[in-house]
UniProtKB/TrEMBL annotation:
Residues 234-382 form the Acyl-CoA dehydrogenase/oxidase C-terminal domain. Pathway: Amino-acid degradation; L-leucine degradation; (S)-3-hydroxy-3-methylglutaryl-CoA from 3-isovaleryl-CoA: step 1/3. Belongs to the acyl-CoA dehydrogenase family. Gene3D superfamilies: Acyl-CoA dehydrogenase/oxidase, N-terminal domain, Butyryl-CoA Dehydrogenase, subunit A, domain 2, Butyryl-CoA Dehydrogenase, subunit A, domain 3. It comes from Sphingomonas tabacisoli. This is Isovaleryl-CoA dehydrogenase, mitochondrial.
Length: 387
């Protein structure tokens, strides 16, 4: 299905456009027809994962030698955008799987770990997840309480994680735990769902992004081999923070997809809906509203794509990764609320999807580091660490 807006050539290259075409076709045919059910029933359609694996979508940034496509973050953003245009819930879970888990394994795992975990994650046979946050440690990651105490041959984990995307369905999880004190006492572990002492706690019922499962992880004397340490011992903060830049860039694509979905509903509606004997799209106030929505989307796209290209060129800047998702998320919330307003009373009903778009858009004002934290980071980096 083509978009309601004209295509703008961002000069993204052949690979990016190929990924867009492939993902858009799949999203229109397989995800979009399920989107309302996914939201209404808080249903995670795990059967989509192998289908996406067949298209190569789970391993976009993974080297070809390890079974991936060997492409970059730009292509990954575009795939997330197109999936999210059909269902932001699936876009979020897909981003958590393919970026937060798979891409971190690609970047930090040793060869034996890659050989063990990547094939099934890339094929979609397994679902991946990343566990950083806790009930009392979100933006303050160093404040985490999950402990990993050294024992003969490995570690014993005790504690919980909270707000974990894909948790209830994940086969492989990248989990951060305290192996010492302070910022130099955190380590990343590869956890498998069947490990003794590991279980899923309460499942979280959310306002939006329903169908992207969120739950608590519980570790009760969970024994983990030292072979499951990913990256350097006590170097987990470096693993985590480097991945957060890419997470923010890639998950910005969710908000781009939501904004495009809003315009895809609003533009046909205002062309057809009549008041005072004329289509409401002929009124200048409505034309201005649609113009603002379009400019918000395209300007966010320009920033997000530029940051993704910078990531691929090895010139990632932490404040621009934060800036891209800050700008995209706030624009998406505003655009989705304007979409509701454009549809009037109809937009406030469950008969139209724009109310879902608004509920979904709000998450990324909070997830992957709140907008307040993003602003703090950007300001601190630009000013040079002044307090």
């Amino acid at each position: 299905m083509s978009t309601a807006t004209p295509d703008f050539d961002f000069q993204l290259g052949e690979h990016a456009e190929m990924i867009r075409d492939t993902t858009r076709r799949f999203a229109d045919e397989r995800i979009a027809p399920l989107a309302a059910k996914i939201d209404a029933e808080d249903w995670f359609p795990k059967e989509l994962w192998p289908e996406m694996g067949e298209l190569g979508l789970h391993g976009i940034t993974v080297d070809e030698a390890d079974g991936g496509l060997g492409l970059g973050y730009l292509e990954h953003v575009i795939a997330v955008e197109e999936v999210s245009r059909a269902s932001a819930s699936i876009g979020l879970s897909y981003g958590a799987h393919s970026n937060l888990c798979v891409n971190q394994v690609r970047r930090w795992a040793n060869e034996e770990q890659k050989a063990k975990y990547l094939p099934k994650l890339i094929s979609g046979e397994h679902v991946g997840s990343l566990a950083m946050s806790e009930a009392g440690a979100g933006s303050d990651v160093v404040g985490m309480k999950l402990r990993a105490d050294a024992v003969q041959g490995g570690y014993v984990l005790n504690g919980t994680k909270f707000w974990i995307t894909n948790a209830a369905y994940a086969d492989t999880l990248v989990v951060y735990a305290k192996t010492g004190e302070g910022s130099r006492g955190i380590t990343a572990f590869l956890i498998e769902k069947d490990m003794p002492g590991f279980s899923i706690g309460q499942k979280i019922d959310k306002m939006g992004m329903r169908g992207s499962p969120t739950a608590e992880l519980v570790f009760n004397d969970c024994e983990v081999s030292e072979e499951n340490i990913m990256g350097p011992l006590n170097g987990g903060v470096g693993v985590l923070m480097s991945g957060l830049d890419y997470e923010r860039a890639v998950l910005s694509g969710v908000q781009l997809g939501i904004m495009q979905a809003c315009l895809d509903v609003v533009i046909p509606y205002v062309r057809e809906r009549k008041q005072f004997g004329k289509p409401i799209g002929t009124f200048q106030l409505m034309q201005a509203k649609v113009a603002d929505m379009y400019v918000a989307l395209q300007s966010a796209r320009a920033y997000v794509y530029a940051v993704a290209k910078s990531c691929d060129a090895g010139h990632t800047t932490r404040f621009d990764a934060a800036g891209a998702i800050l700008y995209a998320s706030e624009n998406a919330v505003r655009v989705s609320l304007e979409a509701i307003q454009a549809l009037g009373g109809a937009g406030y009903t469950k008969d139209w999807p724009v109310e879902r778009y608004a509920r979904d858009a709000k998450l990324l004002d909070i997830g992957a580091g709140t907008n307040e934290v993003r602003r703090m980071l950007i300001g601190r980096e630009l000013i040079g660490g002044a307090s």
